[in-house]
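Researcher: Next sequence.
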Amino acid sequence: MTAFNVSTPRGRLATYLHYCFYDHAYFRLGFSNATWLSDELARANQPWPFQVRAWKKRGVRTIINLRGGADSHHALEIDACKRLGMNYVVFAVKSREPPPPEQFVGAKALFESVEYPAMMHCKSGADRAGLMSVLYMHFRQGLPIAEAIRQLDLRFGHFRAGLTGVLDYVFERYLAEAEPRGISLLDWAQSPAYDAEALQRTFRAQWWGTLITDKLLRRE
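Model: Next structure:
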């Protein structure tokens, strides 16, 4: 984090320049990809500090960062939340790998303990935000996975044909193999039947989907 020192004018300028061009933040100036999942939780893409302030005005008390890392976006968001008196939580997930079992458990615990109203985000608000939205709608709102999986959708910018489609694949395997036998998602994820490495090996992305997500959109 020392490379992004926002405590001095020069350091803040350097951080903003890095954020704008290396994190592609200029694309997000007028587009937040924001949706309220319920009256207590919203999903969105990476917010600018002025957008964090706007979330504060809407009553949001907690920002949940699904990206993790110590980068310019992290430094600016921490600073904005600190200045505004908002809670800041990091729960890093990945967009191209099946979640490890402990992330299912951790996500459920997060949604039970976070101070609401809250907003969670990744970089684009499409893949990792989609994954966590599925888990929120299932664990917190009680929707079956067959309905909750709609949070991974093209309307949010999620392309299941690319490498990020492995997230859909995980839930589809649950619906095909475990849900018909009355096994809960959490029990399945913690059982020997859930093999994240095997799921990764058997998933097949389509070349054009990967071209869109990794080359054109440069998804994280």
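Model: Residues 9-145 form a domain with the Protein-Tyrosine Phosphatase; Chain A fold (CATH 3.90.190.10). The CA atoms of residues 162 and 205 lie 5 Å apart.
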